[in-house]
Each structure stands twice: as C-alpha cells, then as structure tokens.
Write a structure and sequence with these properties.
With 792 residues, this protein is an alpha/beta fold. A hairpin with a 4-residue loop joins strand 4 (77-83) and strand 5 (88-93). The structure holds adenosine-5'-diphosphate and magnesium ion (MG).
Amino acid sequence: MLLNSDLENIKGVGKQKAKLLYKELKIKTIEDALNYFPFRYEDKTKTISISELKDYINSNISICGTINSVKIAGGNRLVAEIKDDTASVELVWFRGMSWIGKQLKPGITITAYGKPTSYNNKINITHPELNLYSNSENDTIAPVYKSTEVLARRFLNSKGIAKIQREIISIIKKNIADIPNTKEINKENAIHDNVSPDFKNTLNDNEYTSKNKIFIVENLPSYIIEKESLMDRQEAFLQIHCPSSLQKADEAIKRLKFEELFYLQIRINKGIRNSKKESREETLKTHEVIDENNSEIDKNLFHNKEDDDLQKGFIFKDRTLLDNFLSSELDFTLTNAQEIVIKEIYRNMSLGKHMNRLLQGDVGSGKTVIALMSILIAISNKYQATMMAPTEILAEQHYNTLKPILDNLGIKSSILTGSTKTRLRKDILAELEMGYIKVLFGTHSLIEDTVVFKNLGLAVIDEQHRFGVAQRSKLWKKNMHNINETNKQSIANNTKSQNYKTSIKENIHMLPPHILVMTATPIPRTLAMTAYGNLDISTLDEMPQGRKPIKTAWLKDSSRLKLFDFIKKQVNKGRQVYIVYPLIEESKVLDYKYLEDGYESIKRAFPDVPIGVLHGRMRSEDKDYEMDLFVKGKTKIMVATTVIEVGINIPNATLMVIESAERFGLSQLHQLRGRVGRGTEQSYCVLVSGYKLTKDSKERLATMVRTTDGFEIADSDLKLRGPGNMLGTQQSGLLELKIADIAKDECLVSKTRDIAKNILKNDPKLIKKENEVIKSYIKKLIEQGVDMTGIS
Ligand code: ADP
Ligand code: MG
C-alpha cells in the first residue's frame, strides 16, 4: 500500500464507501484521507464529578459513576441513574432503548460522555456515549470530522471517518516500528546512502515506501523545523488524527498550518508554474527562452521574476516637474503618510528596479495626489503615463481634477473611454503613438490593442480590486507592442542569455512600465500580504487634517420622516446629499423600480429642491450631464445606484443615505460612506434597513455604526464572508486552505511570508542542499496540478 493507493484498500472501507467518500468529500486515496483534518476535538479524558455538572450545561464532558437503576419511563424513554461520591444524575435515551438497556446493569461502573442539559432545574444527559470498560481507546481526545448526510447514513459520520483515520495511522505506526530508522531519514529530509536502493527509487514520490509501506516524508528543511520548534511532519499527521493530548493536537495543527502557509507563500513569491498547462502568455514565453538553467524541472518550476533582466525597470531620476508641482501647484500640505509614500515611490522609480506597488489607503486618504505625483516623475523623465479607472464617471473625475494642474505644468493629457467618439478616438490614438499626449486617462478602453503608446513609463490603476488580473497584466504589457516582428523573432531565437541582454539594451521598450495599483483597503493586511505577496505595499494610514469622522446612524424603514427632516436641514445649510439604492443583479427591472419609486417620493418630499438621478443604464452623456450638475452644486440631492460607489469626490456632499442597506456588503457600504466626509464639514451616513434581517446583515450594519476604520471593516468583512469571497474569482482558489485561516492565523501568515521571501532571495532556484526538500515538494505540488499562474 502506498500513500496514493485507493482508500478501499483500508480495512473496513470497501468499494461502496470508497465511492461515496470520493463523491462527497473528494477523498480518493489514503493521502487524501490523511489530509482530511478534524475541525475540533472532544476531550474525553477530562472527567468531572457529578456535582459539578451544573457548571458544564451544554458543553461536552465525561463523568464516571456506578449505575444505580435502569428503567423505562413513560413508555418512551430509557433512564439510567448513575452516581459517584458527590451526587447522582440521570442518563436518558429515546432511541436504541433495548440495545442499550441490555448492556446497562445496576452495579457496573461506566464512563458517560455527552452534554448535560437542564430541564425544570433538573440536570440530565441525553444520548451520552458510553464506555462500559474504562481505560479503553475511547477515553481519549476524539477528533471530530465534518461529514455529510449521505455519508452519515452509510456509517460514515464523524466517528466512521475517525475509524478510517485510526486504521491508516495504525498502519503507519506499524511501519515505523518495522523500520526504525525512517524517522531519522525523515529528519534529515533527504536522500541518504543508508537507504536501500528500492527505497531510493520511490523517493521522488515524496513518500518512502519499502515493501509497500506508507510513510510520510518531511517537506520542510530541518533548519526551519528547529528554529520554529515545529513537530516533524509524520508525527504531525499521527497526532492530528490520533492525538495523545490536546497539547499535541495543537502542536500538530500549528505544524500543518505552517507548512500550508509556507508553501502558499513560496508559490506566490516564486510564481510557480504548472508544468501541465501549455497555454502561456507572451511574456512568460520570453522568460522561458531566457532561462539559463537547462534542467527541465527548473524551467517548469519558475519564471524567475526576482533575478532576471525583466526585474529591471526604467530609471526615473529627474524630478523637476514633481518639485514644480510641490512648490507652485499643490494647495494643501501633504500628510506625513503621503510624504512617506511619495518618497517610497520616487526611490523605487529612480533606482532602476521595476516598480510593482500596491498603494493602500482608506477612502478619502488622498491617493489621487500620489498618483499625480508619480505621473509627474515619469513625465519629467520623458516618458508617458496612464491612469485607468473602473468607471467612466471616475475616469472623468480624475481627468477633470488633474487636467488643469497638468495644463499649468505644460503637460498634454487626454481621456479615452468607451464613449469616446470614433473621430476623436482616432486623433487621440495617433497623438498617443506619436508621443504628443503625455498622460492618458481612461477606463478599460485603455487596454485595447489599438491603444499604443510611444513609450509608456508608468501605469496607475485606481480602485484596482475592480479589475481582473488579466486586465491589469495587459496594461503591463503595453510596451511590448513596440517590439517589431524581427526583434521578437531574434529574441525568441536567442536562447543564450548574453544575446538576450544585448537585445534588451537595444530594445529599451521591452521594459514594462512601472505599475502603481491603488485600492481603498477592502483588503485586510493578511490577505494583501498573501494574495499580493509579490507586490510592494505602500500605505496611507492617515487622513488629511481637519477631517471629522463621519457620524453613522442605522434607521428602520419607519423612521423615514425623521430622515427627511434631517435631509432638509443639510440642504438648507447648502450641503449636498446622496441617496443610494441597491442593485440586485437577478432582477434589474425591480431595481430600477426601487430607484424610480425612491426618486418619486423624494421629489414629493422636497418639491423645491433640485434633484438629480444617476444609474448605470443611462447613456454616458446623460450621466456626465447629471454628474456635472451635482459637482457644480446645481442639484442638491443625487438619487443613484451604486454607480457612485467608487472614487467620486465632492467635498460639499455631507450626507449619504443608503436605502435597503442590508443588501450591501461591508466593503461596499464603506466605499459608499466614503463619498462623504471629504471636506471640513461634519458628515453623516444613514443606513436605512427593513426589519427582517439576517444575523450577518445585522452584524454588518452594526460594524458600520461602530467604526469608520477601513482596516477594521475589512477584517470584519473577511471574518463574515471568508477569504474566498474577498477578491476576484481569480484569486479565490488560492485562498482555499485546508487548515490554516488567513484571517485568524495572521501571525503565521507573516512569519511564513518572511521566511519564504528570505529563502527565495538567498537561494532563488533552491539549489542549496538544505533547500532540496522544498524543491522536491514543489515538484509534487505541480504534479498534483497546483496552478498559481493567475496571481499578480
Ligand atoms: P481617495 O484616497 O479616496 O482616492 P482622494 O484622492 O479623492 O481620496 O482625496 C480626497 C480629498 O482629499 C480630495 O478632495 C483631495 O484633494 C483632498 N486631499 C488629499 N490630500 C490632502 C491633504 N494632504 N490635505 C488636505 N486635503 C487633501
Ligand atoms: Mg480615489
């Protein structure tokens, strides 16, 4: 039997059960089973005295006592009274009465495990697990596994699964006893001469087999195990399924979490490729060509982001325009955080290392001016820059706020969106390719193939979580358009890296533009570190001076009159108000009805106030028109759908009303609220909800009232929704972890990240002897089809 043998080889499993386990839980092999971990333990070793039961209502405990009496009560239940030195208690069964009754005889001593409940001040334990013979295997720490209804019906409930695990573990234990030195081999991590030849042959499978025996091989270098005081791998698998104590179980969990997170970080930071996938994108092909290491496995394992020429970036040292801007154009004082971040960015861009940076900053923290300053650095160095936003409204806003400043500095800019007219588009594209236009703002339209830059030095992507990974990486490749076909051919033919280096010098445009992606922190720190492990991160952790925290209230539908009063007061003070309605994808018709009804009722309530409407179905000219009226303060109330969710900046707007707030996710609510509180006036957010709320939506709304801190909200969101839903679909697979939890195991996430980064820095190809074990485990992961190519 090997680790990858079918589970039906295990005693007590059989074809039927094996089939079910595969269908329900995707457990096919012995290894799959071993990797199916319990989610908690029941400590059956802890017995309490019966008089203490009242302190343990509804929690699992064991008691030990002598049976006093056994009787059928009320014709429908079996009641056994047991007593110890301190008190007595009744154990009750409604099912299986005759079977259990047969075994319970007054006078015998038993251990009962279960949950005491209190009914009419009387404590009893219903359907306890019994142990009629003390000190048997049942007096242990029992792992609890998730099962399904289908499995439970076929005796594969948690206990049934535990039994299979025990069987596997006992086989492993026996193997260890037979070949005592395997443990030593494990510790040494690698291939040693004292191992018999047929042993060696199977080492590649990451398991030691000798005469068909199962062993679990270490996958972490011994220096890490020692330094972090980790349990060794085989021991961890034994202990997680059959712990000798709760403490050992904890150690096993920690060890397995560690390895899971460690390999996650290795994958992220190294960009491991799946050797089975052939369809690769252009840039990666180039990487393959230049890979000096001709070993097939190395070529498949890594595209070396860290250490080859493509890691080099444009050197932008000239900062004249930036300094001009700071001295004559900037009309506020930068926050300390902004100063630090622009220094980080300048350093990065001026040193010739390719910038791939995530700028995190809560809504309103002032990311736009950072984008502008970065753009100025690129322009000073005679390169072009582009800034991409997820919506037309936002792209227009950026253009409208930044164009006057760029004009003053003598820099030509333009904007390209889906609604740019064909004639104008043609002109823009031509001027862009000639290099007349220095800064191009826009939406996704920017990534179309027809958009060709003369020399793109920087791409800024605002609200990056709105874009898919593929869209972003297309921007990154913009400069590739400039290599002509002959050059492409010659690069492809040059397998020798020296030639490649020469050709890259001739083709400076081969370098990718510096990249700055910006986000309003709906990404908790741990997630950012994990999903964006290969990005540098800059953080704006400070709000501009003079901002007052937004006051948030949560109203039920019926308090609408009070709300209208409040709206009137704000409008009378000269302020502006947003009223936002949800968009529910499944029922677009209904959505607009909500919006329409809302608009009508607001109109009736405020007959003298100019009101605007904005939603995604409007033609973009109409959107611009409405937006423009609101920006200029000609309309006072803006009734809208979530099209205004991201980025909109109108400092005079001081009240955000969110209708049916229970329908929004936390980060969306936070983004919406971020539309106000952008000036010096006190701002407010009112969440209006119905009465029937789920526990989660209550929690979301309460979180919004409690805090305005984007990080806290993001963490809370992560806990409510789980990491899989936090990012675009591309990344969710990455975060489906077996045992570790990105949100809860923050400490391990950052520790494994540091260790992994350090290893890859000092030994990028993992050729050092002590790191061989990592390399061979990665190989195994790839053989299993692990695909990490989508991470950016
Ligand atoms: P976000 O980070 O949400 O994109 P913006 O860049 O739109 O925020 O900035 C919000 C508002 O704050 C804008 O009106 C901007 O001009 C202003 N702002 C940015 N930085 C400062 C600062 N240091 N002092 C005062 N106001 C600032
Ligand atoms: Mg913004």
